[in-house]
Write a structure and sequence with these properties.
Elements (H helix, E strand, L loop, with lengths): L2 H78 L4 H122 L9 H10 L1
Helix pairs in contact: 1-2
């Protein structure tokens, strides 16, 4: 593969990654918007369920009222059977009518209760799915943040290592220079000391106190003295 083809491939790869990054970022925003809309729909569903529960309660009250009236007219029919058969028949007819109305209302009540039960299950399932989706989005966002931080730290660490290596090399050079300078100073001090000692020895010899050339008479006197 030529250098030009490699360059084109690298550019395409970079463009693809950039495009995917934009798409992924938009996907998170879309999911968050969907979650907000889903929450709003669930809020409406909860309100609808509340209305159904209210209808269930009213319908149950009507059924209970019909049952109470049925029991009342049945008691009237039993009391009237001995004294007024027609009155007893009228009470029985009333009971029949009340039962028909009650049964009709009971049908409504059963439908309301079944609808509320099914709606409650659907809402519960939707809320569970929504919670899982929220958790996944939060986890993706948190992981993305952590990974960005890790990349930043890694980059800084690599840069710091490079700078540390350069600084260490500079420090070593400075230390070597200082060692050389110390050695030069010590050598200069030694030379100065040697020159000072030589001058002192010369002055002592000239004064006849120390050193100097030994004469033949002195050497002979020394030998004879032994």
């Amino acid at each position: 593969m030529s250098v030009w083809k490699k360059l084109v491939t690298a550019v395409k790869g970079g463009a693809t990654e950039a495009a995917q990054s934009v798409v992924d970022s938009q996907a998170i925003r879309i999911l968050e918007q969907e979650i907000r809309e889903a929450k709003e729909e669930l809020r409406k569903s909860d309100h609808a369920r509340t209305q159904i529960l209210a209808k269930c309660k009213l319908s149950q009250q009507k059924v209970d009222s019909f049952n109470s009236s049925i029991a009342e007219y049945e008691a009237h029919a039993r009391k009237a059977i001995d004294s007024d058969r027609q009155l007893a028949l009228d009470c029985a007819q009333k009971v029949s009518e009340l039962k028909e109305e009650r049964d009709q209302e009971q049908t409504y009540l059963d439908q309301f209760q079944q609808s509320e039960k099914q709606l409650a299950q659907n809402i519960q399932q939707a809320k569970a799915n929504l919670r899982r989706l929220e958790q996944q989005v939060d986890m993706v966002k948190a992981t993305e943040s952590v990974q960005k931080a890790q990349v930043a730290v890694s980059s800084r660490h690599m840069g710091a290592n490079s700078k540390m290596k350069t600084a260490t090399e500079s420090l070593s050079r400075i230390q070597e220079k200082q060692k050389m300078r110390n050695a030069e100073l010590q050598a200069a001090e030694e030379l100065a000391s040697n020159e000072s000692n030589s001058d002192l020895e010369k002055r002592l010899a000239e004064a006849g106190i120390k050193g100097g050339k030994t004469s033949a008479d002195d050497e002979l006197a020394r030998i004879l003295g032994k």
